Amino acid sequence: MNVTRFSNIIWIVISNLVLLLANFGVSILLANYLGVRDFGIFMLAYTVFNYLIVFNNFGLKKYVVAKLSSNQLNFNEVYSSSVIIRVCLSFVAGIILYIILDLFNVDTSKKTSIMIFFIASFFIAFDLQAFYDSYEKSKNDSMFLIIRNMLYFTSTLLLVYIDKANIIKVSLAFSISTFLYVFMQYFYAKKFIPKLKIMFNYKHLKLIFIGAFPLFWAELMINIYDKADIIMLSILKGDQEVGIYSVAARLVAAIILLVGAAYRIILPTLSREENLTQRNEYIENAVKYLGIITIPLTVGGIVTADQIISIFFSDEYHNSILPFQILILNVLIVGIGSVFGTLLLAIGEIKYYTLAITFGAIINTIGNLILIPKFSYIGASFSTVIAQLVVSGVGFWVYKRVCNPKFKLNLGKVLFISLLMGGVAISTSLISNLLVVVFVSMVFYLLFLQIFKVINIKGILNTAFGGSKN
Fold first, then answer.
1. Which is nearest to 189 in space by CA: 149, 137, 145?
2. In CA terms, which of 42, 60, 317, 361 is 20 to 30 Å from 1?
3. How far apart are CA 251 and CA 327, in angstroms?
4. In terms of Cα–Cα distance, which of 319, 330, 303 is closest to 434?
5. In this predicted model, what pLDDT tens digit does every residue of 5-61 receive, in sequence order?
6. Rounded to 5, what percent of the chain is helix, strand, coil?
7. With a threshold of 0.85, does the pTM exceed it?
8. CB 40 within 8 A of CB 226
9. Are 336 and 287 in contact (CB under 8 A)?
């Protein structure tokens, strides 16, 4: 592999890990310091920020990478068009957002926090991440992201430590760290990007806008089926419910992000593999090994949910246990189901991938409208899991039609061993803390994987450390 590309991948992975730890750390700090209601307000504002980013970005990051990777000579045309589109969309989003907040008579602190996050989204309109990727400078951008996330976490920690943290100050800390991130991008970009200048070309502007729309639609649908529950909970129930639900959702998202690292390996391999039989064999192995990872994680999360919530959060988040037990089913569903979505991207079936995501967004929206009024955050949890099942199900259905696989999932043994492990976890949790429970359960699980001949642990270790199989 090209040394530069390998270095970029390593730094992207490190950056994602820092992002995960920073977001998780901030969630723990704020959930315990602010209390359920104010933490719910903060998470609502952060969710609105994510939607603003999708709207302002308009799929242009991926589009710009594709354009500049093939031809870097038209840099200023691409840069100008993307910035003009994103800035205009940002202003439109800001006006619409302010009208909505005023129309619903949102209280001052919530409105202020949301508008501060809007300012952060406006800074992102000038983001150069796509250009860094196009010039194979992802390593540098990842360094800036690490600095940004560390600044955000450190400032939040300081505010909590000196007992000065509130929704508005933490939102400002996020906005300032975002501004510094974009500033660092432009400061360093002088070394490898031609002199930046704005060139207005209506024809080129229109071409990029139309070309980026399918990518924008896919990103929007992903956010609707992934994050609509927070906004709908806030509207249909209240900030208290958002706070309880967000704790569970953040924990599960952290686990899924770690599992999702596997797809950076799966996607390139599937993209290169043209032989249908070998591709199906690779999928079969991917499903098997991801099942071996995600099934015990799901079972273990369900049976130790009480301890997991208690170790990180105060007693007022006790009601987050049941939503966590429901949402952690997505670790299994995403872990296995996303293999098929990854395949659709790898073989160029983007329309089917977008179709699956759109179905998920519709199901989640309808499910939230029906379930949240009656069952609050429990209803939102079930709706999210059902939507993910639909997305994964459509991906698997398309895969079977396109690739006509002969294999079966064959995860019965893994499920059985995981359930046994769950029993061990429950028994151990009665007499010991979470760390001991995790260690004992993991040893039991690996032992029975070997006994039932699901995997050859000795062979894997020999391969990993360069030993012989003999």
1. 137
2. 60
3. 9
4. 303
5. 556 666 666 777 777 788 888 888 998 898 888 888 998 888 888 888 888 888 777
6. 85, 0, 15
7. no
8. no
9. yes
Residue identified by tokens 């406006």 is 122
Q: Which residues contact 367 (CB under 8 A, 6 or more apart)?
A: 379, 382, 383, 386, 387
Tell me the two tokens of residue 373. Answer: 């009024």
Are 303 and 425 in contact by the 8 Å Cβ rule? The answer is yes
**Model pLDDT, residue 119:** 92
**Which pLDDT belongs to residue 170?**
92
CA 146, 150, 152, 153: dihedral to nearest 10 degrees?
140
Strands of 400-449 (E only): list them: none
Q: CA 29 to CA 42: how far, in whole Å?
A: 12
The pLDDT tens digits of the residues spanning 77-120 come to: 777 778 888 888 899 988 998 888 888 888 888 889 999 999 99
Task: Map tokens 């603003």 to a residue.
Answer: 52
CA angle 438, 444, 450 (to 5 degrees): 135
- Residues 449 and 457: beta-carbon distance below 8 Å: yes
**Closest Cα to residue 282, out of 293, 292, 271?**
271
- For the stretch 151-160, contacts whose Cβ atoms lie closer than 8 Å and that sit 24 or more positions apart, written own/partner, are 151/176, 151/177, 151/180, 152/22, 152/26, 152/177, 153/21, 153/22, 153/25, 153/26, 156/25, 156/26, 156/29, 156/30, 157/25, 157/29, 160/29, 160/30, 160/33
